[in-house]
Structure formats: structure tokens, C-alpha cells
Amino acid sequence: MTLRVAVASSDGKFVNQHFGKATKFLIFDIEAEGKFEFVEVRNTAPSCVSYQQHDEEELIDTVDLLKDSRVVVVSQIGPGASQRVIDANMIPLMYPGFIEEALNEISLNLDKFE
Q1: pTM here?
Q2: Which CATH fold would you assign to the domain 3-113?
């Protein structure tokens, strides 16, 4: 089984973007044996317009952009965006730190994300 993961990162090393402020998501596939592979970068417009307010259309577009992912890894995510992600059958995961560490943690717990 392959698990697709979207990671909000501005630099490709750290999970350092809030879901609503992210301008891009890095897409990875994690294989059952724990190996992960970078797939692509997906650019998006930030949906967060101010503190606790978002552009609904941009939020929907971002969720649609990631809908083939099972897990969305971000540094932060608000309750509205989190619910949209969950409603799209994805799991929001807050993990501010190194991308590699987040992917390793997910790969060790693949059964929780199926």
C-alpha cells in the first residue's frame, strides 16, 4: 500500500507553513516498507486572509488540490480548515519540524492512516 502525504513547507526541509498561509505543498508517497519518495510540488493561493478568517473559495481549491493525499502535514491548521480536510477524507496532522522526521513518524504508524 502507498500512502500519499501533502506537506506544507516553504523550504523543502521543514514543515513550517500554516495550512491557510501555505503557497505550496510538497507531495510524497510512503511505501509499506517505510520508504518515501518525493512526487511533486503543488502551488496554491493562501486561503487565510486575516486572523481566523479565510477565503472560502481558496480553502475549497486548496483541499481539492490535495484530495488524492491521505495525510496533510502542516505546522498549524485552524478548526474550519481542519474540518474541510477531514470532510475530504484526509487526516490533518500538525507536525512542526523536519519533513523527514514527520514522514518517518507516519511510516512507523501506517496502520493509523489507512
Answers
A1: 0.93
A2: Nucleotidyltransferase; domain 5 (3.30.420)
